Amino acid sequence: MPEGIGVLSNMRPRVTENTCPRCLCKFYTISAGREINCPFCGFSLRLSDIEKRAESRALIQRPCDLHRGGYSLSGQTVDISKGGICVKLGVDFRYDKGDTIRVVIKDFEIDTEAKVVWIKKFDSFICKAGLRFLNQPL
What we know:
- The chain is mainly beta.
- The protein has 2 domains: 5-51, no CATH class; 63-133, Thrombin, subunit H (Beta Barrel).
- Helix content is 8%, strand content 46%.
- The strands form 3 sheets. The chain has a 6-stranded antiparallel barrel with strand order 5-6-7-10-9-8. Strands 1-2 form a two-stranded antiparallel sheet.
- A hairpin with a 6-residue loop joins strand 3 (35-37) and strand 4.
- It starts with a helix and ends in a 5-residue tail after the last strand.
């Protein structure tokens, strides 16, 4: 057998299940590049963003409220884990990355503080934000 063939025959492509943060559809990819596009809506995902998650997340959509300094926003959870949530809002997100806000999800009896980790604005009316719980309510 030529040199190196044995090494290559043991290598198998790594198939990864992904969930698009925009349309929430699941799809599978073979990790080859740094960016992939959702086959359903075309949204561009960076593999580094997908691999950053330390905990598994459950796709659960529930109404939620965000509060800070007398200002409140109503939105909906996209997914939730022990350490945080992703929320979708139909209004302009008026908080900044790094802000500490109060999160209330009545269906789960969650009323806790969280830090804004990331914000993605899709247009002037829709945005998503990643929030990390400061104390784990789950």
